[in-house]
């Protein structure tokens, strides 16, 4: 994976996390997101900025990849909670067939975001091994 592909994957992931945050309707989930994912996402965004002075670790590709991996791990941890919550919502609303498509879609979206986190983290680790 090239650096450009890794950057695009990270930006896509951040967009998905922003979408997920915007649809959050549970205050406990929001607190968890703000406490665990938002700081990691902010660090990842700083890595992606075009201005090198905005990045805390300048010039060290390994350090930037390490930050990316840590940010993705934090996002994965949070998204696992989102998958669990979506499963619980689906189970609790099983008696209401009209609600089922909504909760199934939320569960699938949470699973998709989790899969994207895992793929991006694996790509970052692979990029670290393939350093020039």
Short description:
The protein has 132 residues and is an all-alpha fold.
Describe this structure in words.
- The chain has about 130 residues and is mainly alpha-helical.
- It has helices at about 5-20, 25-50, 60-90, 100-130.
- The radius of gyration is 16 Å and the shape is elongated.
- The chain starts with a helix and ends with a helix.
- Mean pLDDT is about 75; it is low at about 50-60.
Helix and strand arrangement:
Elements: H1 3-22, H2 27-48, H3 61-92, H4 100-129
Descriptors:
79% helix, mainly alpha, single chain, 132 residues
How many whole angstroms does the radius of gyration measure?
Answer: 16 Å
Shape: elongated
- Indicate the proportion of strand residues: under 5%
What is the helix tally?
4
- The tally of beta strands, per DSSP, is 0
Secondary-structure element order, as H and E? Answer: HHHH
What is the structural class?
mainly alpha
Query: How much helix is in the residues?
Result: over 70%
Arithmetic mean of pLDDT: 76
Main sheet properties: none
Distance between the termini: 12 Å
The low-pLDDT segments are 51-58
